[in-house]
Design brief:
The chain starts with 5 loop residues before the first strand and ends with a helix. It contains 11 helices and 13 strands. Helix 6 crosses helix 7. The chain is α/β, with parallel strands linked by helices. The protein has a domain of 218 residues: Alpha-Beta Barrel (TIM Barrel). The strands form 3 sheets. Strands 1-2-3-5-8-9-10-13 form an 8-stranded parallel β-barrel, surrounded by 7 helices. A two-stranded antiparallel sheet has the order 6-7.
Length: 316
């Protein structure tokens, strides 16, 4: 059974003089969720912004895409997330990842450990988060974190715990996501710690199928079914146009791909509203991806995307 479509929008900041109005406009446009990234490059803090957003919206989902496990101890993150879950009446989708952008680490002085170490830390953090939300007390001793007799961070008052979103591009992170997450973000790998010419090529149709297999392995390990997990993709480029040839050719040169591969990659949605809708429906049938997140910042594009893509597809 296919999941209904949901659409999110990722923003790095909001207008200083009308940040509440901007969030309400996203809500009115039919976006399911507003997401904020977690970098040290002039962006608003995701958790502070989401807490504020909870007070000025009614139904808009609130998500991080994603909090870097190295920037916040899981005990602190659990408390902050549970608080947002309570004040938003259960709207938080907590995205958490192993960290990938080396510039964040270099500029902050935080040590950039090898990827295996960072994934180990993410694995432990996920276990601690869930325990601190669900159990009266938590004891945990791992290689990276030790928790002794810690009480439940915040009483959720009968609300479900925050949904966990884990995104990644390699077999180990996607396997962990399939095992632990409620929402899995399927991304290109970022082994170099930055976006490179190989980034887009890691989400061709063949690579996408392989990533689904890695998720499936984690799902089977957990005893769940793939249908229990919501699959998410982050779009880098949206171009609504009846003549997508030029934009696809330009992206093909930038990505080192063919124009056809650009048309098929989840990283870009190019073409008319009808073509984009058809492509999303086909991809959902082939892969199960139903949760699409696009980039904010262009109000005219967001309005048109709402009219031509979200309104015909959301909830279907």
């Amino acid at each position: 059974m296919l999941r209904p479509f949901r659409f999110g929008v990722q923003i790095s900041n909001l207008p200083y003089d009308d940040w509440g109005g901007a969030l309400r406009r996203l809500e009115s446009a039919g976006f399911s969720t507003v997401f904020l990234p977690d970098h040290f490059s002039g962006q608003w803090d995701p958790l502070v912004t989401l807490a504020a957003a909870a007070g000025v919206t009614e139904s808009l989902g609130l998500g991080s895409l994603v909090c870097d496990v190295d920037f916040r101890h899981p005990a602190i993150l659990a408390k902050m997330a549970a608080t947002i879950q309570v004040i938003s009446s259960g709207r938080l989708e907590l995205g958490i990842g192993a960290g990938w952008m080396q510039d964040d680490y270099d500029s902050s002085g935080i040590h950039f450990d090898p990827i295996g170490t960072r994934i180990d830390r993410l694995d432990e953090a996920l276990a601690i988060l869930v325990s601190l939300w669900e159990n009266d007390t938590t004891d945990y001793e791992g290689s990276h974190y030790v928790i002794r007799g810690m009480q439940k961070t915040v009483d959720l008052g009968g609300l479900p715990r925050p949904r966990l979103l884990v995104g990644g591009g390699g077999p180990r992170v996607l396997g962990l996501a399939g095992e632990r997450a409620d929402i899995v973000g399927i991304n290109p790998t970022m082994k170099e710690g930055r976006i490179t010419g190989d980034t887009a090529r890691d989400l061709t149709a063949d690579r996408l199928r392989q990533k689904i297999e890695w998720i499936q392995a984690g799902v089977e390990k957990s005893g769940r079914k793939l249908e229990e997990i919501e699959l998410n993709s982050l779009v880098f480029v949206v171009a609504l146009t009846d003549d997508p040839g030029p934009i696809r050719e330009g992206l093909a040169k930038a990505f080192g791909m063919t124009s056809q591969a650009v048309a098929e990659t989840p990283l870009a949605l190019t073409g008319s509203g009808q073509e984009i809708r058809d492509r999303l429906c086909l991809r959902r049938e082939q892969t199960g991806i139903s949760y699409i997140v696009i980039q904010g910042g262009d109000d005219a594009m967001l309005s048109r995307f709402s009219e031509e893509v979200i309104q015909p597809l959301a909830g279907r």
